Every structure is written in C-alpha cells, then in structure tokens.
Amino acid sequence: MGILAANIVAFGQPMPAYMFPDAFTVPHSEAEDWMWVGQFILIDGKMRGLFSLLFGAGMYLFLEKAWARGQGVWLQVQRLFWLGVIGLLHYFFIWRGDILFLYACAGLAGLLFVALSRRKQLVLGVLGYLGGCLLYGGFVGFLPAVADTEVGQNPAYSEMARELEEEKQADLADGELETRLISSGSYGAWVSHNISDHAGDLPFYLFLFWFETLPLMLIGMAAYRYGLFDGGVDPGRQRKWGWALLVVGTALTVPVALWAKNGGLTYYGTLAAMAGFSMLPRGLIILGLVALLALWGQTVSGGLAERVSAAGRAAFTNYLGTSILMLLVFHGWGLGLFGALGRSELYLVMLFTWVLMLLWSKPWLERFRFGPLEWVWRCLTYRKLFPLRR
C-alpha cells in the first residue's frame, strides 16, 4: 500500500513526474506543490526502504525453513532467479518502475553474507548504507548548484551546465514520447520503446539503488535474527528507539523538502533532494518505522488489521496486480486516463486501489493457501505443483 502511494504519480504521469512536478502534463498547483513536500517527508523512499528491509528478513526466514528441511541456499537462488524473470517481464511489458529485478540481483548478492553472525550483518548493512549516503550525496548533491544557479555560468562549469540541461531535456522528451505512446493505445509500440530505449537503463538502475537496497536487506536479516519482529527485543526499548529514530529522521528530512520547495522544485533540485540529501535521514525513518510497525503488528487486532495483514500476505500479487490494474486505468486501450489526472486525483485512484487490496485479499486467503502469484512463485521455486485451495 505504501509502495503504491510512492508510485502512483509515475503510473498516471510520465516517469520524470515522479520527482519533477513540471513534468506533469496538467498544471501542478501550489497546493499540489505542498503535497509533493508532504509525500517527500512521509512516503518517498521510506516505503521502498521498508520493502527492502523486510525482503531481507523474509530471505533469512525462507532459508531457516529450508535448512530445517535439509535444503540449502540453492533453493533461494532458484527463488530469486524466478523473481528476476518476473521482474524483467514486469519492467518491459507492464511498468518500467519495477523493483523486483533489483531485489533479485541484490538478494543474490545478499546470499554471500547469510553465514555471517547477525552482528556482522548489522554492521555491514549500516556501514554499506552510510557509504551509499556519501556516494549518492557526492554524485548528485552538487548538480543543482551547476544547473540552477550562477555557478553554471562560470566558464569552468559551463560545459557541465550545458550537458545537464541536455540530459534533462532528453528525459522530459522521453516522457512526452511515453505519453503519446500510452495515450494512443498502441501497446506494442510502447513495449517496443521500453525494449529499444530502456533496456540499457537496467545497469544504471541497479547502480542507482544498489548501495541502498543490499545494505537494508542485510539490516533486515539481522533485525529478524535479533527478534525485532517476534518479541525478541524488549518492547519498551524498541518503542523508545523507534520513536527517537522516526522523530530525528523526520526532523532532518523537513529542511531538505523545504529547500527543494523554496528552490522552485527544479529538475536537479528534486533529484538531489530525493537521491542525495535525504538518504541519511530516510534511513533513520525506515529503522524507526520498522521498529514501531513490528510492535504494532504483534498487538493490533480487529477487522481492519486482519485485512491489512491479508494484503501483506498477498504482497506479491498486490504489487504486480496493482501494475496490471494501472494498465487498465491509464493506457489508451483501457480507460485512457494517462496524463489526464493531477496529483490530487491520482491520490484518489490510490485510495480506491487500497480499498480493492483490502477487499479481495482476506476472503481469498480464507479459501486459498497463498495469493495467486505467491502460489506461482512457490511452484516455480520448488519445481512442483502445490495445492492451492485450503
């Protein structure tokens, strides 16, 4: 559900609009600029980070069960291989914002560290994440100064400023082409564009998130082994650290969001804010959220909690199912709403989709053992058919 909140803009608008409001094909109001600020503080990167951390915890849980049956790491390799295949199909044929291929690659790398102690996994994860903060901050942090200020007029930086503007215009032009292809209803032409123009983006895409995703997976493995999710950590201490990390991380994120807003939400300003300056405070928020949500998950009860839990147990189906639903909503051969809705209206689509997730997941899992895609993934992993109906 949180991932959809982060991705909904890029489902219904050109991909550059995910970070850059001027890439919207409809006017982006002042109120929606403030919505950008709110999403930046509360959602962007945090949901992906939670997903990455929980994926690492899930990997170790899967391995524990495999080891108990006398099976080994190769079963996890098969599982990740099929995840990667599904991710590539998702990337080229459904939605280019796929994260599954990245998780498959990072997960395979994470297998190199499963034999380490939980302390070493935690230390390596934290150090790797801090290294990513330095790397990404250095990589994009100076770009707004060159692209958006008088620094770019300095002869020493004029060539760089020109190249940055060309890269920006190329990205926006690709978004405009994407809009035409999707709005025309030519699914084949859109897929062909993804393959011919964006297959080469995958290595950069992996690099862009590698030093975030793999470290968070290692932290997730360690957190699972320390008992963060099942009461193995003192609840009072976990709650105190969770709130402290959440508050400090949010307090450090707000100035970054306001800096980007006061700078006019420029292309390179929003890029630097999202990919560079917010990574460290984002990490604190992710750790705080996972600590508090883990406590909440151990104690919460009631109808809504059961439905949220069921949606989580069918997370793979909900993730890919959402992308398929968005094809029907936005592509020209469907409802044809791509590029027609502003940020406010896209949030309404998000809320409607949340309701669908909560409505179908619980009754399905009352009748079946797995979500549909969870079942397919399990059968591919073990190379045999499992009973689906309870």
Number of strands: 0
Helix content: over 70%
- The low-confidence parts are none
What is the chain-wise order of helices and strands? HHHHHHHHHHHHHHHHH
**What is the number of domains?**
1
Number of helical segments? 17
Q: Indicate the overall shape.
A: globular
What structural class do the secondary elements suggest? mainly alpha
- What would the average pLDDT be, to the nearest integer? 95
- Rounded to an integer in angstroms, the radius of gyration calculated over CA atoms is 21 Å
The major pleated sheet works out as: none
Q: Please report which band the strand proportion falls in: under 5%, 5-15%, 15-25%, 25-35%, 35-45% or over 45%.
A: under 5%
Q: Report the end-to-end length measured between terminal Cα atoms.
A: 26 Å
Pfam families: DUF418 (PF04235)
Protein name: DUF418 domain-containing protein
Keywords: Membrane, Transmembrane, Transmembrane helix
Transmembrane segments: 35-61, 73-93, 99-116, 123-147, 204-229, 241-260, 272-296, 316-340, 346-365
Secondary structure: elements and pairs:
Layout (H helix, E strand, L loop, with lengths): L1 H11 L17 H13 L3 H23 L4 H21 L6 H11 L7 H23 L2 H6 L9 H27 L2 H12 L2 H26 L8 H28 L4 H11 L1 H21 L3 H11 L1 H16 L12 H25 L4 H11 L8
Helix pairs in contact: 1-15, 1-16, 2-11, 3-10, 3-13, 4-5, 4-17, 5-10, 6-10, 6-12, 8-9, 11-12, 11-13, 14-16
What can you see in these coordinates?
Pfam families: DUF418. Residues 224-384 form the DUF418 domain. The protein is 76% helix and 0% strand. By secondary structure, the chain is mainly alpha-helical. It has one domain (2-382). The longest helix has 28 residues, at 235-262.
